[in-house]
Amino acid sequence: MKEKISLAMARRIALAAQGFADTRPNSTPDRRHLARVLARTGLLQIDSVSAVVRAHYMPLYSRLGPYPLALLDNAAVTRKRKVFEYWAHEASFLPVETYPLMRWRMERAERGEEMYNGLAKWGRERAAYIEDIYREVVQRGPIAASALEGQKGSGGWWGWSDAKHAFEWLFWAGRITTASRRGFERRYDLPERVLPPAILALPVPSPEDAHRELLRISARAHGVATAGDLRDYFRLSPGDIKGRIEELVDAGDLLPVRVEGWDKPAYLYKDARFPRKIEARALLAPFDPVVFERSRTERLFGFRYRIEIYTPVEKRQYGYYVLPFLLGERIVARIDLKADRPAGVLRVHAAYAEPGAPPKTAAELFEELKLMQGWLGLKRIEVTPAGDLGSALANIAAS
């Protein structure tokens, strides 16, 4: 085993770990393809912004190409579900087999130790009210918070009502879970009425064993990573991983290596693939595991990436909802994109090439945009010639 890995090889290892060494399926992706992606990524981060499509749908598209959105929707409902929702790398869909590995976080949350400080404080002050809401779920679930919340709260915690606070507290604590969604709104119920019985019957590991297993999943999803990368994937604290990585090294799950240009030690997953070439072409969501840890993205790809949704318009550098474009084994461009569903248009507001992007970047990006247009059921693509790649895209669109 090599003790030092080139940066180019580290990129290929990381992309292969995320499924980008495989060609997209020729047939319509099905539950087997979904399971394969989830086995690699370990999670799908959930986000409500629908400028293009909600972010949890995009990683499947980036790896599989056009697929029916119902594939993920159906995997998240009924007692035969394949995924459940909980806090991992932010709110996420997780394979149901991961449920016992998150019980330590739920138990800590119930003690007010593993949730947002404001919500923990509110929970301590309103314990009796939380129990009232829990009884409503027992009697009426599946139920949405909006069924009980009445008037929205004013200011404060995102303007949440008391009922919404209580539902979120109970969700963090694992006492309720998402049964389904109506639009983007969760409908909550008891875990024992939602999750497969076989999953509920699994033994709950100790926190130390759970942290070790979560680090294994993280290592498999990264291929090669620093300790910080491994910890961040499931938002583990430094205390949670103290001694755990060394144990995984001793067990042979992780192999210490140096990566060219990295100033911190790295760890290679024992079954990591070493592809000679990656021939990927994909638009990536801002919350795709390849890019959601921004410092890792910069180390691997030399690509500095920040989401500018909450940046005032006049201060944005690239745009409101900017997607990186992966071509081969490099991120070669970024594009400010919007799906204008009422008009049936995929709108390119701006496009920018990265230094050293190959001449074929605009043509390849437009091909990927056409694929996305069809996936989203839009009639056409309209390109504003903004950014150093915008004119080339606009010319292709007009030809």
What does this protein structure show overall?
- With 399 residues, the protein is of the alpha+beta class.
- The chain folds into three domains: 4-98 and 203-269, no CATH class; 116-195, Arc Repressor Mutant, subunit A (Orthogonal Bundle), CATH 1.10.10; 306-398, Aminopeptidase.
- The protein is built from 18 helices and 15 strands.
- A five-stranded mixed beta sheet has the order 11-12-13-14-15. Strands 1-9-10-8 form a four-stranded mixed beta sheet. The chain has a three-stranded antiparallel beta sheet with strand order 2-4-3.
- Strand 13 (330-340) and strand 14 form a beta hairpin.
- Helix 7 crosses helix 9 and helix 12 (207-222) crosses helix 15.
- The termini are far apart.
- It holds the Pfam family AlkZ-like.
- It comes from Mesorhizobium wenxiniae.
- This is Cytoplasmic protein.
Write the layout of secondary structure elements.
Elements: E1 4-5, H1 7-17, H2 31-41, E2 44-45, H3 58-64, H4 70-75, E3 83-88, E4 90-95, H5 103-110, H6 117-125, H7 127-140, E5 143-144, H8 146-149, H9 162-172, E6 177-182, E7 185-189, H10 191-194, H11 197-200, H12 207-222, E8 224-226, H13 227-233, H14 238-241, H15 244-250, E9 254-259, E10 266-269, E11 280-283, H16 294-301, E12 322-328, E13 330-340, E14 345-353, H17 361-376, E15 380-383, H18 390-398
Parallel strand pairs: 1-9, 14-15
Antiparallel strand pairs: 2-4, 3-4, 5-7, 6-7, 8-10, 9-10, 11-12, 12-13, 13-14
Helix pairs in contact: 5-9, 6-9, 7-9, 12-13, 12-15, 17-18
